[in-house]
Amino acid sequence: MAVPKKKTSKGKRNQRHAVWKAKAGDAAQKALSLGKSILSGRAQGFVYPIQEEDSEE
User: Fold this and answer.
1) Torsion-angle region of residue 13: left (phi > 0), alpha (psi -120 to 50) or beta?
2) Would you list the DSSP string of the chain?
3) Which of these, 18, 28, 43, 53, is most buried using a 10 Å CB contact count?
4) Does the pLDDT at position 48 exceed 70?
């Protein structure tokens, strides 16, 4: 027998939304930090291939 679900409170909804937004903000901050480290040349935690032009051909 189908029973309607209880309505989720505004507080619970806002809490879930805040957690979701915080995770997205953390991911964006990490990506920005990684990009800055790549551009500054101080990246040490991963392999980043740098394309070098060969003029000896």
Assistant:
1) alpha
2) ---PPPPPPHHHHHHHHHHHHHHHHHHHHHHHHHHHHHHHT---SS--PPP------
3) 43
4) no
Mean of pLDDT values over 39-55: 70
Residue for token digits 């937004």? 21
- Flag whether pLDDT at 57 surpasses 60: no
What's the rounded Cα separation, in Å, for the pair 10 and 23?
20
Supply the pLDDT for residue 32. 92
Q: Which residues contact 39 (CB under 8 A, 6 or more apart)?
A: none
| Angle, CA 27 vertex, CA 41 and CA 44 arms, to 5° | 25
